[in-house]
Amino acid sequence: MSQVRLEQVTKSFGSITVIPPLDLSIADREFVVLVGPSGCGKTTTLRMIAGLETASSGTIRIGERDVTELRPGLRNCSMVFQNYALYPHMTVAENIGYGMKVRGTPKSDIERSVAEAARILNLGAYLNRKPNALSGGQRQRVAIGRAIVRQPDVFLFDEPLSNLDAKLRIEMRTEIKLLHRRLQTTAVYVTHDQVEAMTMADRVVVMNQGRVEQAADPITLYEAPANLFVAAFIGAPSMNFIDGILERGEGGLWFRAPGNVTLPLPDERAKKLGAYLGQAVILGIRPEHTMATETNLPRISMQVRDVEPLGPHTLAIGKVGPAPFTAQVHAGAPISPDDVIDVPIDMARMHLFLKGTGEAVG
Ligand code: ATP
């Protein structure tokens, strides 16, 4: 069993605390992605699990072992780095087998493990090449091969795809996912790319300033973000936010905001939102929930500033009242900058946040 547990773990550099007490549990075989903006403490957290940074306080456990004071080599984690960290003078085979050689593993065992890793990662044809004769994606696969042959309890990935071009990143994303499905080794993966997080993870941990804002499976994060931070971070293009107020009106509760925004709350949502009547709230609506699939949706008026045709659909970018707003419209919709358009809002998909705390209330 290779679950990873951080219990009240903190990290300070000098007088600056970058991780306040952090509790995080990663289940055996789970693929967990830590995601968040630059500087939020993802890499520091990963490096503390690896033992490359010492926790300032708290306990780190891998399986049943307390590894808090253990040096990296004894934790049985394999880390894959963003810059690959390959030895330039060694061949692919030597790079993959190096760790085993250092530990005195018999040559025949090394050869067998290297061949198996090369087979899994499609590197068989490159075993005698040096890293400088490989593409970025192949180099990253060698780095992953080196991690695999150690048969670690836990894989740790530190932004392993950031140096690859967009197309290769998508391919490697799938390869790493398939590899995890096959090896079933507990994995902790750090990225600042929310799409990477959403597509790869069993569970995504959204971090902000060293804290966990929300930890959940990708669909829950998308459909039920716990607060404004998660709502803004997950989803591309980002969720729209309109500051307004909840009022009682004809037939139930209404959301009203500057720019003639008057939107009825669906009955089933209104029931639990009565407590927030008269309060300042923020309506969240994703651009993809503004596309007219039904004709009887309520509408708001949007001033268009720019139009981005993306192929399958088009984005209209502009403002609703004072609030920046992006709407998804049908490809080829006859819209131009400076138009004022009526945007249908799918209120069944809306989110509501308290203005003061940012907490999601419905
Ligand atoms: P990125 O996506 O940019 O890599 P991150 O979320 O991984 O960011 P960390 O690298 O964990 O963030 O850094 C968290 C904070 O700790 C940052 O403010 C960073 O400047 C600080 N930090 C990290 N390492 C050190 C160090 N050795 N000394 C001082 N401060 C550090």
CATH fold description of the largest domain: Rossmann fold
Proportion of helical residues: 25-40%
- C-alpha termini separation: 38 Å
Shape: elongated
Unreliable stretches:
none
* Number of strand segments: 19
What does it look like?
It is found in: Cell inner membrane. One of its GO terms (molecular function) is ATP binding. The protein is an alpha+beta fold and 362 residues long. It has helices spanning 42-50, 92-102, 107-120, 136-149, 166-183, 194-200, 218-223, 228-233, 267-273, and strands at residues 4-13, 16-26, 31-35, 57-62, 65-66, 77-80, 154-158, 186-191, 203-208, 211-216, 240-249, 252-257, 261-264, 280-285, 299-309, 313-320, 323-330, 340-344, 351-354. Strands 6-7-8-3-9-10 form a 6-stranded mixed β-sheet, with helices on both faces. The protein has a 5-stranded antiparallel β-sheet with strand order 13-12-11-14-19. Strands 2-1-4-5 form a 4-stranded antiparallel β-sheet, covered by helices on one side. Helix 2 packs parallel to helix 4 (136-149). The longest helix has 18 residues, at 166-183. The relative contact order is 0.11. The model has no long low-confidence stretch (mean pLDDT 93).
